[in-house]
């Protein structure tokens, strides 16, 4: 009689395992498509009935994932459900649920904990549970391990526990799920072996590490590296501006150095589900060890100040044109957090809109990827995207370029906007009606 470990390895290697993916968003949906493409049966589980219904009808709800791909998956065995009892059908359970911060900038683990609590009555021998959500080092051991073992299962013997951080970059044409190396840490060596077998068929390169904690810390280091360097270049932008120097020219010039320098470009603040949030997971956990993560917290302060800096530049620009911000009509260009996607999570553009409105101006937005302002947990504007034309642009006292989507006609904007506040360095040549922000 084969052991649960050997049996699971055989199923994964032979592509006979059922892959269960919990959370079908920006991380879970591409992963589902990849496993489906290579011949695994995939079961998707999500608490959102509307999402489940749309997927089962072959429809995508994420702009850069075509509905045709979803339809192909549903036609070849993929099924979505809100019924957590069906997790018993899966041999591998991959958790792709959100890990936001609460209002005190502390980790909100409720999505992970509630998901595992919903799954645990239906876990069985011979399964692997893999957490992909970004979190602090120790989460897998402290939160998942006791819950998975609550009903008598033993991790490393008859059930297996893995942490493998997601590394999605929505809208980046140079990378896809298959080509982005996958870090995998297991609670035991047997767990790590199962984790490698789970991801090896789907991902070109699997990178095993010694523990779930090491894998958790790896993800945080990746995003803290970006947050700190973006904070540095945002601070440099403010200094360079005061000195009359174009920071974008400086970064471009520095980037010609073939060693020892990585170019980071300033912007209106940090957005997305990772970089504005993940550093504070480590900051919070470090306090347990009596440590104060000063670099991380300082970069967070600098980056969070950027929307106010942009609005300050808007006020200066309007003032130079003999206008006050109060009573002005302002158009924000791009409200997704990064170019060429429809993802609004933590977008600094939304904070810029709120600051403009709070100062008595009338704010509108234009974003070809976000036709109607979505329902968000903390922000609400009853607005639709403004179609850009010579007439519509001329009707605003100022436009704020917040997200530089390729689909914007930047020449049209330059010709017809009365005032442009450019937070992305799109317009490199100086002009009387362009303010660098």
Automatic annotation (TrEMBL):
<dbReference type="GO" id="GO:0000271">
    <property type="term" value="P:polysaccharide biosynthetic process"/>
</dbReference>
<dbReference type="GO" id="GO:0016628">
    <property type="term" value="F:oxidoreductase activity, acting on the CH-CH group of donors, NAD or NADP as acceptor"/>
</dbReference>
<dbReference type="InterPro" id="IPR036220">
    <property type="entry name" value="UDP-Glc/GDP-Man_DH_C_sf"/>
</dbReference>
<dbReference type="InterPro" id="IPR001732">
    <property type="entry name" value="UDP-Glc/GDP-Man_DH_N"/>
</dbReference>
<dbReference type="GO" id="GO:0051287">
    <property type="term" value="F:NAD binding"/>
</dbReference>
<dbReference type="InterPro" id="IPR028359">
    <property type="entry name" value="UDP_ManNAc/GlcNAc_DH"/>
</dbReference>
<dbReference type="InterPro" id="IPR017476">
    <property type="entry name" value="UDP-Glc/GDP-Man"/>
</dbReference>
<dbReference type="InterPro" id="IPR014027">
    <property type="entry name" value="UDP-Glc/GDP-Man_DH_C"/>
</dbReference>
<comment type="similarity">
    <text>Belongs to the UDP-glucose/GDP-mannose dehydrogenase family.</text>
</comment>
<dbReference type="Pfam" id="PF03720">
    <property type="entry name" value="UDPG_MGDP_dh_C"/>
</dbReference>
<feature type="domain" description="UDP-glucose/GDP-mannose dehydrogenase C-terminal">
    <location>
        <begin position="331"/>
        <end position="429"/>
    </location>
</feature>
<dbReference type="GO" id="GO:0016616">
    <property type="term" value="F:oxidoreductase activity, acting on the CH-OH group of donors, NAD or NADP as acceptor"/>
</dbReference>
<dbReference type="InterPro" id="IPR008927">
    <property type="entry name" value="6-PGluconate_DH-like_C_sf"/>
</dbReference>
<keyword id="KW-0560">Oxidoreductase</keyword>
<dbReference type="Pfam" id="PF00984">
    <property type="entry name" value="UDPG_MGDP_dh"/>
</dbReference>
<dbReference type="Pfam" id="PF03721">
    <property type="entry name" value="UDPG_MGDP_dh_N"/>
</dbReference>
<keyword id="KW-0520">NAD</keyword>
<dbReference type="InterPro" id="IPR036291">
    <property type="entry name" value="NAD(P)-bd_dom_sf"/>
</dbReference>
<protein>
    <submittedName>
        <fullName>UDP-N-acetyl-D-glucosamine dehydrogenase</fullName>
    </submittedName>
</protein>
<dbReference type="InterPro" id="IPR014026">
    <property type="entry name" value="UDP-Glc/GDP-Man_DH_dimer"/>
</dbReference>
């Amino acid at each position: 009689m084969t052991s649960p470990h050997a049996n699971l390895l055989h199923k994964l290697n032979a592509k006979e395992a059922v892959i269960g993916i919990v959370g079908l968003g920006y991380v879970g949906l591409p992963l589902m498509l990849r496993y489906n493409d290579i011949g695994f049966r995939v079961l998707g589980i999500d608490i959102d009935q509307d999402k489940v219904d749309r997927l089962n009808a072959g429809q995508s709800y994420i702009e850069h994932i075509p509905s045709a791909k979803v339809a192909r998956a549903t036609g070849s065995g993929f099924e979505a459900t809100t019924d957590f009892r069906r997790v018993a059908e899966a041999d591998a359970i991959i958790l792709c649920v959100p890990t936001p911060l609460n209002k005190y900038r502390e980790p909100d683990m409720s999505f992970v904990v509630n998901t595992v609590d919903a799954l645990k009555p239906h876990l069985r021998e011979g399964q692997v549970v893999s957490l992909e959500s970004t979190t602090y080092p120790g989460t897998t051991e402290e939160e998942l391990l006791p819950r998975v073992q609550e009903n008598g299962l033993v991790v490393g013997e008859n059930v297996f526990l893995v942490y493998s951080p997601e590394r999605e970059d929505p809208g980046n044409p140079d990378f896809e799920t298959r080509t982005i190396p996958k870090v995998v840490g297991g609670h035991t060596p047997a767990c790590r072996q199962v984790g490698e077998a789970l991801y090896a068929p789907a991902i070109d390169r699997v990178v095993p590490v010694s523990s779930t904690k090491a894998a958790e810390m790896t993800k945080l280091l990746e995003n803290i590296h970006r947050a700190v360097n973006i904070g540095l270049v945002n601070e440099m932008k403010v200094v360079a501006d005061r000195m009359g120097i174009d920071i974008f020219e400086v970064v471009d010039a520095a980037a010609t150095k073939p060693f020892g320098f990585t170019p980071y470009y300033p912007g209106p603040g940090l957005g997305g589900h990772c970089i504005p949030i993940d550093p504070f997971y480590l900051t919070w956990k470090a306090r347990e060890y009596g440590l104060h993560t000063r670099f991380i917290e300082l970069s967070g302060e600098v980056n969070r100040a950027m929307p106010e800096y942009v609005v300050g530049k808007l006020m200066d620009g309007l003032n130079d044109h003999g206008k006050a911000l109060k009573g002005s009509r302002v158009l924000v260009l791009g409200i997704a957090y990064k170019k060429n996607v429809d993802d609004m999570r933590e977008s600094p553009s939304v904070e810029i809109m709120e600051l403009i409105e709070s100062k008595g101006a009338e704010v509108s937005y234009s974003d070809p990827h976000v036709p109607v302002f979505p329902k968000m947990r903390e922000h609400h504007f009853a607005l639709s995207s403004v179609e850009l034309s010579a007439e519509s642009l001329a009707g605003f006292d100022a436009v704020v370029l917040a997200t530089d989507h390729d689909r914007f006609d930047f020449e049209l904007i330059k010709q017809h906007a009365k005032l442009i506040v450019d937070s992305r360095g799109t317009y490199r040549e100086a002009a009387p009606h362009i303010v660098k922000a």
